[in-house]
Specification:
Elements lengths: L10 E7 L6 H11 L4 E7 L6 H11 L3 E5 L5 H15 L4 E4 L11 H7 L5 E5 L6 E3 L3 H18 L11 E4 L17 H12 L4 E5 L1 E3 L10 H29 L10 E3 L6
Helix pairs in contact: 5-7
Family: Belongs to the glycosyltransferase 2 family.
Keywords: Glycosyltransferase, Transferase
Pfam families: Glycos_transf_2 (PF00535)
Amino acid sequence: MSSARSTMSTTLVIIPTYDEAENVRPIVTRTLAATDDSVHVLVVDDNSPDGTGDIADAIARETDRVHVVHRTVKDGLGGAYLAGFAWGLEHGYDKLVEMDADGSHHPEYLPWMIELADTNDLVLGSRWIAGGEVENWPWYRELLSRGGNLYTRLALGIAVRDATGGFRVFTSRAFERIDLHGVASKGYCFQVDLCWRALEAGLRVVETPITFTEREFGVSKMSGNIVRESLTLVTKWGIDRRLREARSLVKDHRRLPSVRANAHAVADHAA
């Protein structure tokens, strides 16, 4: 693990990697070019056998804006992000960004998303609000994503259109109200998990449109197990919410705080 340099930086872009040797340098280079010196990058590598971690180390030696964490275990996307959040909070960053290594998330959106985090607790780069889109996806991938997000909205009673997206900005103060120690999901349901926790905690959540581009190199980590985990956990959370709502009505004669009121959408600043 690289040590953090003395810095005035306020934003840390966390990029988990596993076998991303072809992608890691291009995405880090684009991220640095799209942002100013107040933004640093943390590559969290899960002991990639293709040498991704070595490439990340080489980049970190070239600039003090890049740091690397090497993990010896591979326990899913959620585990990698939790390690990145812990590192970023320990080193005093004010905003923490989730971004994929494969180029599907365009770092050119970062300045606007980081600006939105000045007045919101969680900023979601959204494919499924007006202005958002996907590129190079087969029809079944889009159907799966749209359907999964529709089910999530109905099961949890939320207004967020893209709760499964992985391009987002958290403020450090948001983590003061989100219990990261209780996060059980490790796969892509991790994204729904954190969004749901933010909404239940009453945090201000905003969606802004992005274009999502399917990876050019490497293999997608999506699998049937990931889909099954998501369906199981979202269903469980929805049932649990309704049971707590019923108990609150019977015992206290009041509803739980809304999980819809603090979520809204904004246009891209360039639109």
